[in-house]
Q: What sequence folds into this?
């Protein structure tokens, strides 16, 4: 049976997108726990960088596809499943576009932190509900759920820069860096010489005024001593 491919299941090669930024931040030769790995597109890039990836995915059909990229796949709801993983066994805990879907993101981060090695780090990607576009929509009395994006109808939690940082810190981590993304554009435009200048400018503005212009926050943090 062919696995269902979601609207998110396309690797974004743009240097300003979350996929490439996560691959670069994880680096090479790491043991990675990829929570919400979908069909393993990011995991495949990490594998090419000689990382060993263990994936957790709630959708069994997508998990079946991800087996090619992951050393091991655990199928189930990360919030409720019993994880038979060794403590301190991963260099990186990757949670890209996951926490906003959970009932208890704080508890889940705490649950997973015990699997992170002493020198390891978490990499969290969260959408920014305070982006100026959504502020304008609220001014016009609109808060309509959509099939994709920040107002995805499956999102249970919404984060600003302040609440995203608070979540990570309250889970017992010390933030080392915060990067941002800007809204995705077609690959043909992202790598177009003329358009890329505007894209770079948008990224720099988003870096300066994260809470207003960042599309997503990418938080790298280590466990507090």
A:
């Amino acid at each position: 049976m062919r696995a269902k491919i979601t609207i998110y299941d396309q690797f974004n090669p743009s240097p300003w997108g979350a996929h490439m930024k996560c691959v670069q931040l994880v680096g090479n030769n790491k043991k990675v726990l990829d929570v919400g790995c979908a069909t393993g597109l990011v995991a495949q890039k990490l594998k090419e960088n000689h990382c060993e990836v263990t994936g957790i995915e709630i959708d069994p059909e997508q998990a079946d596809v991800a087996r090619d990229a992951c050393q091991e796949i655990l199928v189930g709801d990360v919030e409720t499943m019993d994880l038979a993983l060794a403590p301190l066994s991963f260099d990186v805990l990757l949670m890209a576009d996951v926490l906003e879907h959970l009932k208890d993101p704080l508890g889940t981060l705490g649950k997973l932190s015990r699997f992170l090695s002493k020198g390891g780090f978490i990499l969290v990607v969260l959408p920014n509900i305070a982006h100026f576009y959504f502020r304008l929509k609220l001014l016009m009395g609109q808060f309509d759920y959509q099939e994709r994006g920040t107002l995805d109808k499956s999102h249970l939690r919404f984060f600003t820069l302040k609440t995203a940082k608070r979540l990570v810190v309250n889970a017992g981590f010390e933030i080392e860096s915060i990067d941002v993304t800007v809204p995705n554009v077609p690959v043909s435009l992202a790598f177009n010489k003329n358009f890329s200048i505007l894209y770079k400018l948008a990224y720099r503005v988003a870096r300066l005024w994260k809470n207003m212009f960042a599309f997503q926050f990418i938080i790298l943090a280590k466990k507090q001593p």
Q: What stands out?
A: The beta strands are 31-35, 52-57, 72-75, 90-96, 116-127, 173-181, 216-223. Residues 1-5 have pLDDT under 50 and may be disordered. The chain has one domain: 18-223. The first strand starts at residue 31 and ends at 35.
